[in-house]
């Protein structure tokens, strides 16, 4: 698909699932058959925030994701360290050269060896521009196992500018789409009461508007806070808004 056609297609998607399916297919045309995309809106000086709040999209197999994400290996991944300190793109030759020179500490070497065992051998990382210090987003593009880093570097030399543009537009579109982390999705009622609070309504006002008791409204607010793992309703409204769960159109 031509660059202009693909960028036009990206702007039309209404769900992350549709977009991701198309993006995996498009990147596959350049030799990248496994993608791992993620961003956090809750980064601090010492942490990327609660992993349950990460927006993660991937077509890696479950075994890889269990090791890399669930077991926390990502926190010592050499290319993630690069992404946290840089914006733009980088060849995985960086990690390969560091490994060859013995520059990894034990934890970083563990991640590198894990990737080698899982066939995550060659690729590129794109680190997206950050509008605030709380935001960080990146995508790891893993090459097919029959392609070496030299092979993928040659492909990048010819198509890299287009690949970066496609990924940046996909990333910006994802930021506008609703996302619910596993076990963090609000029910319709929970979302509705948060919307009314965001509009400045009191619990009594909302009870009248929704035809419910104040006790039921308070219950929905409590469950919304628990679902989003926050302490206050204000935090719940902020987190829901940041993940585009507020004012969504029902399908």
Output the radius of gyration.
21 Å
Name given to the CATH architecture of the largest domain: 2-Layer Sandwich
Mean pLDDT: 90
The overall number of domains is 2
Describe this structure in words.
With 251 residues, this protein is of the alpha+beta class. The protein has 11 helices and 5 strands, in the order H-H-E-E-H-H-E-H-H-E-E-H-H-H-H-H. It has a 5-stranded antiparallel β-sheet, sandwiched between helices. A hairpin with an 8-residue loop joins strand 4 and strand 5.
List the helices and strands and how they pair.
Elements (H helix, E strand, L loop, with lengths): L2 H10 L3 H13 L3 E9 L14 E4 L3 H9 L7 H8 L2 E4 L1 H8 L5 H12 L5 E5 L8 E8 L5 H26 L13 H11 L4 H8 L3 H15 L4 H10 L9
Please sum up the structure shown.
By secondary structure, the protein is of the alpha+beta class. 52% of the residues lie in helices and 12% in strands.
What are the defining features of this structure?
single chain, 251 residues, alpha+beta, Beta-Lactamase, Arc Repressor Mutant, subunit A, 2 domains, 5-stranded antiparallel beta sheet, 52% helix, elongated
